[in-house]
Amino acid sequence: MTMKIQLTLSTPRNPVAVPARLRQAGPHRRSGKALRQQQRQTLRRELAHARPDPHSP
Known about the structure:
The chain has 57 residues and is an all-alpha fold. The protein has helices spanning 17-22, 32-49.
């Protein structure tokens, strides 16, 4: 009597993800566009809350 063993192969892994995972890839810096947008929003928020100048026309 012979016994047969069947091995199931797992699905292939993403070869790009392994080095990134090993490096503990983290968040990157914001792009220049995102920084400018945030600065514009901050400026608009500050101007909206600023008191008007009594000497301006």
